[in-house]
């Protein structure tokens, strides 16, 4: 709990958020237009990719979020020179990459999971890497066995120490045949960032194919890598000796778009999200429509609104892409508390991702979490041993309460619940939300929310 508070405060400070508690006077629809920029789940990895090159990279669309500050700190600790050319445009120069002191790496690692992705690039550049304890949202065990097994397959030695993990590559890393037990996003990125400069060919089976991964592959190709994405989750990478810097505009943040869309629905509002694109949001848009939300795809964004007619219950199964993303269920569940009937959300990616629903129940929701999942005859995603299910009965009026943000997406759902509820809500630990939502306080203001920071 304490470490979350510390992380939250650090995260808030990194993006200039001066308060860790927000008081919301709810019951007012959110209306207006906001913009999203590059995805947290791509930008941070693109920054790490710059380490693989021998010339500078230029990354555009970089959002003001604390995870970007964490990765900047880590890159700088390794000698990468980072310059902000204009707001949202970073130049990353890896000409003088050095080993960093473990204490310095540990101090920078903060609440992000990205340090693990430094392994491949550092092994190529320096022959060794230190990885501190990983942060990220506490939504289950979040092991790193797939990452370490993949690195071993490339020929790295992995030495687990009390303070973290020490990796070395006594010989040049070699291409490998790797099959992931689950299409993990992070482990797929680990393999990509390592294989591109390994000697020979790597074949990765059961790879994740999220749009952010495709964007990372596009960046690596710009750098000189040879990567083919084949059918059935197979990715083949032919290693090359050297890579050069890239120029790239990051893919938009799908998770942020889905969150504001859910906010429009839950508050009976009307929000246009500039920068959102249809192609990468199709699965979400289908569910949004089934719940009864309206949307219109514009030239430069997507408009989401509540049409004024009752919302409908749905069954959702979270899944890897192209399924319904696990990071989308939390904000949408707030809207489902207002649907007429019983909704079921099966969480199949992480084993502990419904903790945030306790606060919603305190606000008047009727959500029952089944920790071992629920049988259903209409399932599409094969049942996983770690899954849980949430059953949401609606509609239930929400009333203001004092709640504490547990994690990034759960935190955003608390904000939305406070905005949809009648009365006043006090939401603490909001700094953690700045890990993934750029300028969310300013955006709430733009959308006409009634709140103050304490
Ligand atoms: C920074 C970032 O991009 N975070 C995203 C990334 O997280 P992240 O990359 O951490 O998520 P993964 O796809 O790796 O995790 C999926 C599942 O695989 C398991 N697993 C993963 C690695 C491993 O070594 N061993 C193992 O068992 C995890 O515990 C989890 O149950 O993808 C998730 C799934 O889309 C998203 O929710 C996160 O927002
Ligand atoms: C789980 C998430 O992120 P991370 O992997 O950075 O903790 C998320 O973005 O919801």
Automatic annotation (TrEMBL):
In the UniProt entry, which residues are flagged as the active site? 137 (proton donor)
Pathway given for this chain reads:
Cell wall biogenesis; peptidoglycan biosynthesis
Reaction(s) catalysed by this chain's protein: phosphoenolpyruvate + UDP-N-acetyl-alpha-D-glucosamine = UDP-N-acetyl-3-O-(1-carboxyvinyl)-alpha-D-glucosamine + phosphate
- A molecular function (GO) term: UDP-N-acetylglucosamine 1-carboxyvinyltransferase activity
- Ranges for the Enolpyruvate transferase domain? 25-444
**Which residues get modified to 2-(S-cysteinyl)pyruvic acid O-phosphothioketal?**
137
E.C. number, please? 2.5.1.7
So where does phosphoenolpyruvate get bound?
A: 40-41
Where it sits in the cell: the answer is:
Cytoplasm
Q: What is its main location?
A: cytoplasm
NCBIfam families given in the database record: murA (TIGR01072), PRK09369.1 (NF006873)
HAMAP family named among the record's database cross-references: MurA
What PANTHER family does UniProt report for this protein, alphabetically? UDP-N-ACETYLGLUCOSAMINE 1-CARBOXYVINYLTRANSFERASE
- Function comment: Cell wall formation. Adds enolpyruvyl to UDP-N-acetylglucosamine.
> In its UniProt entry, what is this protein called?
UDP-N-acetylglucosamine 1-carboxyvinyltransferase
């Amino acid at each position: 709990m304490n470490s979350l508070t510390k992380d939250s405060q650090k995260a808030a400070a990194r993006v200039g958020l001066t308060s860790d508690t927000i008081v919301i006077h709810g019951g007012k629809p959110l209306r207006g237009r906001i913009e999203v920029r590059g995805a947290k789940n791509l930008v941070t990895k693109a920054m790490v990719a710059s380490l693989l090159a021998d010339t500078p990279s230029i990354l555009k669309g970089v959002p003001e979020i604390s995870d970007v500050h964490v990765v900047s700190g880590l890159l700088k600790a390794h000698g990468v020179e980072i310059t902000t050319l204009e707001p949202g445009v970073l130049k990353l120069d890896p000409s003088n990459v050095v080993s960093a002191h473990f204490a310095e790496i540990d101090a920078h690692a903060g609440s992000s999971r990205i340090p693990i992705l430094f392994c491949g690039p550092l092994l190529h550049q320096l022959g060794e890497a230190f990885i501190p304890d990983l942060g990220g949202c506490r939504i289950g065990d979040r092991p790193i066995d797939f990452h370490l097994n993949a690195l071993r397959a490339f020929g790295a030695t992995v030495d687990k120490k009390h303070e973290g993990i020490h990796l070395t590559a006594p010989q040049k890393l070699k291409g490998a045949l790797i099959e992931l037990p689950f299409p993990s996003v992070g482990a797929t990125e680990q393999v990509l960032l390592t294989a591109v400069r390994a000697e020979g060919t790597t074949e990765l089976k059961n790879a994740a194919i999220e749009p952010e991964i495709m964007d990372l592959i596009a960046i690596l190709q710009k750098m000189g890598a040879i990567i083919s994405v084949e059918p059935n989750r197979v990715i083949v990478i032919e290693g090359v000796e050297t890579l050069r810097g890239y120029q790239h505009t990051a893919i938009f943040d799908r998770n942020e778009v889905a969150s504001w869309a859910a906010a429009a629905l839950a508050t009976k509002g009307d929000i246009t999200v500039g920068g959102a694109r249809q192609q990468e949001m199709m699965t979400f848009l289908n569910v949004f429509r089934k719940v009864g939300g309206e949307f219109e795809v514009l030239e430069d964004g997507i408009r989401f609104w509540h049409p004024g007619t009752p919302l409908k219950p749905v069954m959702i199964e979270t899944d890897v892409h192209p399924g319904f993303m696990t990071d989308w269920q939390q904000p949408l569940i707030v809207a489902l508390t207002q649907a007429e009937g019983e909704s079921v959300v099966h969480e199949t990616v992480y084993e502990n991702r419904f903790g945030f629903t306790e606060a919603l129940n305190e606000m008047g929701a009727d959500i029952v979490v089944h920790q071992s999942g629920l049988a259903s005859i209409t399932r599409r995603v094969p049942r996983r041993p770690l899954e849980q299910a949430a059953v949401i009965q609606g509609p239930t009026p929400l009333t203001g309460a004092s709640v504490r943000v547990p994690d990034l997406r759960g935190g955003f759902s608390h904000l939305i619940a406070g905005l949809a509820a009648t009365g006043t809500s006090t939401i603490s630990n909001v700094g953690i939300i700045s890990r993934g939502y750029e300028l969310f306080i300013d955006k709430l203001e733009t959308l006409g929310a009634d709140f103050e920071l304490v």
